[in-house]
Amino acid sequence: SYNTLIDFLTDFALPGQRRFQQFQQAFGQSAFEFSTNDYNFFFQDDIRVDSRLTVNVGLRYEYQQLPQAQIANPLFAATAEMPSDKNNFGPRFGFAYDVTGDGKTSVRGGFGMYYGRIINSTISNAITNTGTATSQRTFTFFPTTVGAPLFPNVLAGVPATTTTVAPSIVAFAGDFENPQIYQGDFIIEREIARNTIVSASYLFSAGRNLPTFVDINLPAPITNPTPIRVVGGPFDGQSFTLPIFATAGGARPNRDFGVITQIRSDVDSQYDALVLQLNRRLTAGLQLQTNYTLATATDSGQTSQTFTTANAPLNPFDRSLEKSTSNFDIRHRFVASAVYTPNNFFGLGESSLGRAIFNGFTIAPIVSISSGAPYTAFINGNATAPAGTTRIGSGVLGAGGTNRAPFIERNAFRFPSTAVLDLRISRRFNLGETRNIEILAEGFNLFNRQNITGIGTTAYVLSGSTLNFQGVGGPASNPTFGIPNEAGNTIYRERQIQLALRFQF
């Protein structure tokens, strides 16, 4: 892997160079087999206290039985252990209360504890990456590592020495637990007209014991005596001293292994939301559904990883740097949809000719507006190790983690807001009692609004002891940070229109 295209082209064009950030190669078995068993038991009772109050109580138990370790490494005892979390009891409680006794005003609420599975890709990595001769062994080289290959060469076999290159392993923490979620809501609902209801809801979801991956074979970081000075941007002229993971010769605390990825369950998340709704069931040819959500979402480093990563946090010795706005934080969202099937199309269907021409139409618009998703500022380049030391790993700090700017909070920036209007218009012609033809026209993103789906996230380029800002107002000749670079994905697209003819019989 390379930090820049220039580094790659240098290795490609000039034999003998080592400009890569790191080189990884794996050896060992290509396939393993294992199975997991899930045991789940559930009890629930619905209690009708009286004609106005109903209470629901329940209890669920879940146990995920993991397979046994297959190729444990005697040099690291944790590779022989798999989690066995047997205390996963999830109580449930809910109620519904008719406040006025006429069925027009209700208060409802609920609470429950839920448990997630330990996904198979995580289990697979713990089984197969134990550093033994029969496991899948991954070796990591840096440009200064003895025996590092030259581009485009690869290793012919397992490195002959492990004094400078040792296999990386993956193991569960001894106290690892299944992910746990607390969810609840409280809703006040009122009928304001026939088949028309307004409601206000409070929703929350608190995640506990969420998984993350931490390299525990790192020494305590040392402070680089040379401060890094920022040029341009909001921190222009300021200097920062960064903790660097480096030692004399780049040796790790446990020299038998390279990266020791510990699978932990110590990440938390929190979601709180206020939801306002107005809904009208199909009445007199009109149906409405509208809702507005005001929400906040935070976490302490939730990554949504499937397979394990070598090291998720920026600095494993300071996990407080991870607590911030969640990747899923959408502060404001408004969605409204309608279905209108007029019996007398704006007064034009009163005559038999008018009914033949204008009746049978259905008009169905949907509008979605939301505030922008968050994104993080990253650094291109790695901080230099102090004199007499060698960086341990990749990443801006040498911890093998992310390259985000340590002095800027995670997800501190926002995409522009998004807005989409979709519309369907259809006309149905009856051909007797059992057959009909329907003509449809559908437009997606009808106003062809440009919704930004990609944006430049490299905020700084690190050159020596200087951080050059890459946004507008910095020294970069072609600013990219915060500049949109994509306006289309599987959700948001340019305007699209389609026509259809449907025959039903």
Structure write-up:
The chain has 505 residues and is mainly beta. The protein has helices at 5-13, 120-128, 352-358, and strands at residues 23-27, 37-48, 53-65, 88-98, 105-115, 137-141, 169-172, 180-193, 196-215, 222-223, 228-231, 239-240, 243-244, 246-247, 260-283, 286-299, 324-325, 332-340, 361-370, 374-375, 378-380, 390-391, 413-414, 418-430, 436-444, 454-455, 458-463, 466-469, 484-486, 496-504. The longest helix is centred in the first third of the chain and has 9 residues, at 5-13.
Largest sheet: 15 strands, mixed
Number of strands: 30
Q: Spans with pLDDT under 50 lasting ≥5 residues?
A: none
Beta-strand content: 35-45%
* Average pLDDT for all residues: 92
Radius of gyration: 30 Å
Q: Report the end-to-end length measured between terminal Cα atoms.
A: 59 Å
- Please give the share of residues in helix: under 10%
In DSSP terms (H or I, runs of 4 or more residues), the helix count works out at 3
